[in-house]
Specification:
Blueprint: E1 4-12, E2 17-25, E3 34-37, E4 40-44, H1 47-67, H2 76-85
Parallel strand pairs: 2-4
Antiparallel strand pairs: 1-2, 3-4
Length: about 90
């Protein structure tokens, strides 16, 4: 089973909040993969893992668009709901 992590990152700037998704593929087949898109960067993983992360990041953006929101406008709870809708599992905070 492919192993990856998709992380919700939000930074506060003086003028405007920014948010981005960072996907880390924890498995490898020797190839270096980096994919960027609107509000996301995906790094690493096998071809299968990287493809799955890409699909999930795109689906998150589609769901945000359907709600009329940007990533930086959703709460952690709303993001968790969207992430679960696209097949991501919530990892408990330590």
């Amino acid at each position: 089973m492919p192993e990856s992590r998709l992380v919700f990152v939000m930074a506060k700037a003086k003028k405007k909040r920014k948010a981005a998704l960072l996907g880390l593929g924890l498995d490898s087949d020797g190839h270096k993969r980096i994919t960027t898109g609107t509000n996301f960067t995906l790094v690493g993983g096998t071809e299968e893992t990287h493809e799955k992360m890409t699909e999930q990041a795109i689906k998150i953006n589609e769901k945000l668009k359907a709600r009329g929101k940007q990533l930086e406008e959703v709460s952690r709870e709303e993001f968790d709901d969207i992430a679960q809708e696209v097949g991501l599992k919530k990892v408990p905070h330590r």
